[in-house]
Amino acid sequence: MGMLKYLYFTLALLFYISVILANTVVIAIIYSHQNLHEPMYLFLCSLFINEIYGSTSMLPCLMAQVLTASLVHDLVFGLIISVAGPVSYITYSYIKILQVCIKGSKETKAKALDTCTPHLVSIISFMVACFISLITQRFDMFTVPYPLCVVLSMYVVIIQPLQNPVMYGLKLSKIRQAGKDLFALKTIELYVEGRAE
Question: Which terminus of the chain has fewer Cβ atoms in its 10 Å neighbourhood, N or C?
């Protein structure tokens, strides 16, 4: 791996910092706005805390292994096994929700689709990550460049924790509006402080 290990380490560090920042911003938005203290947003808050926790347990280990050039694929495989049960339950839940919504009015269908889209994208992304990991674990990947194998095997650890806060933060209108309000408030405060000095 030679000098590329420093590039890989830097990329992993940037992803780790991005995951921490993106999740922390959405957590702070949910925490600071009283109107977001509802079960769905508190559930999302716990999801984002989980993303930070999972990334903190995996990415520093990955970065250390990159520097010592001893990458371990079993980390990702263990992660997949530990979450396969909950994902199958969540998938079952969505099938039931969709069955109820199909029988509902046009407005109910539209609202359900709007609400469930981020969840479904997240689940599908996770399933793709699991599939990629299983393929790279089970089949001869010697014809695939090694850096690509590393990136593909770490997809679940890198992309998923960064995708969720961005997707939920942009898709859910209450979080998006609260974020705009918080950003506008901080900008005004900085402007007023700057003019006062």
Answer: C
